[in-house]
Amino acid sequence: MLSRFPIPDSRFPMQPIRFVLVRTSHPGNIGAAARAIRTMGFTRLVLVAPHKYPHAEATAMAAGADDVLENIVVVPTLADAIADCRFVLGCTARRRGVSLPEIAPREAAARVREVPGEVAVVFGNERTGLENDELMRCQVAVHIPADPTYSSLNLAQAVQVLAYELRLAQLEAQPPDDAGPKSDPPATAEQMEYFFGHLFQTLGDIDFHKGRSPVTIEKRLRRLFAHANLDQREVRILRGIFDDAQRMARMAKGR
Ligand code: SAH
Asked: How far apart are CA 8 and CA 42, in angstroms?
């Protein structure tokens, strides 16, 4: 049933992560949670026995995150919501008498990245949180390290924090947009020595040093190109430029 969720942006495939709200009292929180996950590129919200849903307040608070609302799945128990999941994280505002490893959202997001299949992030009721038997169904407890004297976030805001961390972790896993064409193999040490020989020769040909010692500038240029980690194609491009500069210098000298 849950596999009918759409993926919103095919250019940016997100991991199959569902956000599960258990026994939510306020429909406004459902809408706000829908908006929170949609802004972070997720669309899958599952409600376990919500007190009031559908509801006009949910629609209003979703503020146009209609694709999330349309795809909401309502199930009677937490077991139904997570049956096919490989990794289940339970979010708690305070420590419970359950011996689960407790981690912060950032570590949780890093762990999620390693999971090859479906993931559920579970949130409790506004007043009572997750019951112990619900937490027992999770592999880890996630706690947002809030002020210990006032540690309980609004439900939708807790959803936002988790969704944000999950998105950051997903973005890190993507190759950057501007990666461009695949780069060539890195230049070898020998190619770099020919490159530097050519560069320094060119600097002489265009009279860059004007009588000063070339030693310091040559050291700096070596350091600069060491940072650049040039690949073989980039070395060819730069040496093409040196060839032209040398040709122009010869022409200028009338040779
Ligand atoms: N009085 C409840 C608070 C529930 S707040 C309790 O003490 O558990 C509703 C839900 O938001 C929680 O069940 C939890 O899933 C999430 N939440 C709120 N604050 C959180 C925090 N600091 N860390 C992790 N999840 C939190």
From this structure: 7
